[in-house]
Amino acid sequence: MPNPTISTRKGLVLPPDKSVKGLRGSDVAELQSINLGTKCEEMALGRGRTLLLSSNSLWNIENFRSNLVRAFDRRGWKVVIAVPATPDQCRRSTLPAQIRPLEIDRSGVSPFADLKLCWAYYRLLRRERPAAYLGWTIKPNLYGAWAARAAGI
Asked: 3-state DSSP call for residue 83?
């Protein structure tokens, strides 16, 4: 079977990363979709090696994505996590990442609150200028992806 490759938005075709032992299958797929391989700098398009992750809870990332965060950290990436977190939760977190509190109403249906969240994502993405954005759960996926597209990420 031929070695799979990954195509990026800018047309680069990159081999998948082979040094992801010890990670779950979903984490390996996410690492490969961003591809921490040899052409990583080309993918960052002049931005720093920063990755912005977002979910509707810090607990979710600490329990299900900590291996992914640690893998990026070991590879020299600056990892920024945008979640609704209290200052106490930010201090107690053991993840090797910067935590940016973000006001996400997980069960809210107010269009004004959602518009405010989308604007907060946009401002955070413009300030951090990450090479990639990864979101989990519905609001970070939807509003974070829209903001990332608007910010040119």
From this structure: strand
Q: How far is CA 57 from the centre of its chain?
A: 14
| CA distance linking residue 80 with residue 102, whole number of Å | 12
Q: Are 137 and 60 in contact (CB under 8 A)?
A: yes
Q: Which residues pair with 99 in a beta bridge?
A: 81
DSSP assignment string, 49-88: SEEEEE-S-HHHHHHHSHHHHHHHHHTT-EEEEEE---HH
Contact in structure between 25 and 48 (CB atoms under 8 Å)? no
Amino acid of residue 19: S
**pLDDT tens string 28-83:** 555 555 554 444 444 544 456 899 999 998 999 999 999 999 999 998 899 999 99
Best CA proximity match to 16, nearest among 24, 7, 25 = 7
Residue that has been written with the tokens 């490759």 in this structure? 5
Q: Radius of gyration over alpha carbons of the chain, in Å? A: 16
